[in-house]
Amino acid sequence: MYFTDRGIEELVDRRGDEQVSVEWLADRLRAFVDANPQFETAIERLSSFLARDDADDE
């Protein structure tokens, strides 16, 4: 198990029944980077990964 899996599991446990929009997620990611600019590159990579995730299915 990676260290990040704990945070992912917490997210699912706390908010797993909720549905969110991509716009909400983008706002939360922006707020996170504003508060933690040292993670800008990681959030950029995650955002790009999520944006392109279904591109291979076409």
Overview of the molecule:
The protein has 58 residues and is mainly α. It is 69% helix and 0% strand. It has helices at 3-15, 22-35, 40-52. The longest helix has 14 residues, at 22-35. The protein is globular. The relative contact order is 0.08.
Assign the structural class, choosing from mainly alpha, mainly beta, alpha/beta, alpha+beta, or little secondary structure.
mainly alpha
Beta-strand content estimate: under 5%
Rg result = 13 Å
- The level of helicity is 55-70%
Q: Based on Cα principal axes, name the global outline.
A: globular
Biggest beta-sheet profile: none
| Distance N to C terminus | 31 Å
Number of helices in the DSSP assignment = 3
Low-confidence stretches: none
What sequence of helices (H) and strands (E) makes up the elements?
HHH
